[in-house]
Amino acid sequence: MLRDALAVGAATGAYGLSFGAIATATGLSVPQTATLSAVMFTGASQFALVGVLGAGGAPLAAAATATLLGSRNALYGLRLSALLRVRGPGRLLAAHLVIDESCAMAVARTDRRSARLAFWATGWSVFALWNLATLLGALGAQTLRDPRVFGLDAAAPAAFLALLAPRLRGREAGAVAAAAGVLGLAITPAVPAGVPILAVAAGTVLVGLLGSSRRRSPS
Amino acid sequence: MWLAVLVGATGCYLCKLAGLSVPQRVLDDPRTQRIAALLPIALLAALAATQTFITGQRLVLDPRAAALGVAAAAVLLRAPFLLVVGVAAATAALLRLLA
């Protein structure tokens, strides 16, 4: 199990490398990039924050987008709380490690003891390698004079696509993704940078509220 | 930039903590579940689209579009994350070099 945890950590280290490079290429400093990985510590939200800032969005619009993307971690926490049974300071620490990978590894276990071990081992392994890789990527990209020459501005959308792909299961997911992409592009010329993504989020909440009586959510 | 970093990090942490702390029934609501499942899909799709086709506030078609196409092909071929990002960057870099 510890080997699994290390393997998952090493795999996410690869994301960390590209995150560090994209963040500094976008204009964040190395300390800002490193702080994101240490304190925010949830990949998709970090990429989103950098993406909105890079597009010229306001700081609070970027923070709001990151938080909205991070809301799925609340559902992971919900599934984990029964398994982990953590109280007090332990819970504050456990919360920091609630991410896609630690949750997936924990809920895949059949008994509570190994689920708990899988959560902590995966959480710490990803945390260590994610932060190390971020720093390496950030320092590496910082030495580039013009990141566009190396196509780093095209790396960010590819990262979003790669994060999106595993979630595209079922017709509804595909339809939502297509509609969100078109809506985001359509309203961009009319509103300040950063707002299109938040408008898409608002639209999604609306669809979620209205559609729930019509269709049953999967799983 | 620091404002975005710190406010965003706080927001994300509170989401994680909320999941471990609030009573089960609050997050068990089917609408909450549905919205939480759809939000990442919609936001990631909108981010991918705008980061590819927007410069400033204008719609543009430049090497990033070709790069996204190559990235999509890599995703369909089940390439690992770093390779998807790498081929996209290389495609854009190559097209600019040729232009």
Distance between the termini of chain A: 27 Å
Strand-and-helix sequence of chain B, N→C?
Answer: HHHEEHH
- Average pLDDT for all residues of chain B: 92
Question: What is the overall silhouette of chain B?
Answer: elongated
Number of strands of chain B: 2
**Structural class per helix/strand content of chain B?**
mainly alpha
- Given helix and strand content, the structural type of chain A is mainly alpha
Percent of residues in beta strands of chain B: under 5%
- N- and C-termini, Cα separation of chain B: 33 Å
Largest interface, Cβ cutoff 8 Å: A-B, 104 and 76 residues
Main beta sheet of chain B: 2 strands, antiparallel
What oligomerization state is this entry in? Answer: heterodimer
Largest sheet of chain A: none
The residue fraction in helices of chain B comes out at over 70%
Task: Give the SSE map.
The complex is a heterodimer of chains A (219) and B (99).
Chain A: H1 2-26, H2 30-40, H3 43-54, H4 59-70, H5 72-84, H6 88-96, H7 100-107, H8 112-142, H9 152-164, H10 171-187, H11 195-211
Helix pairs in contact in A: 1-2, 1-3, 1-8, 1-9, 2-8, 3-4, 3-9, 4-11, 5-7, 7-8, 10-11
Chain B: H1 2-21, H2 24-28, H3 30-53, E1 54-55, E2 58-59, H4 63-76, H5 81-98
Antiparallel strand pairs in B: 1-2
Helix pairs in contact in B: 4-5
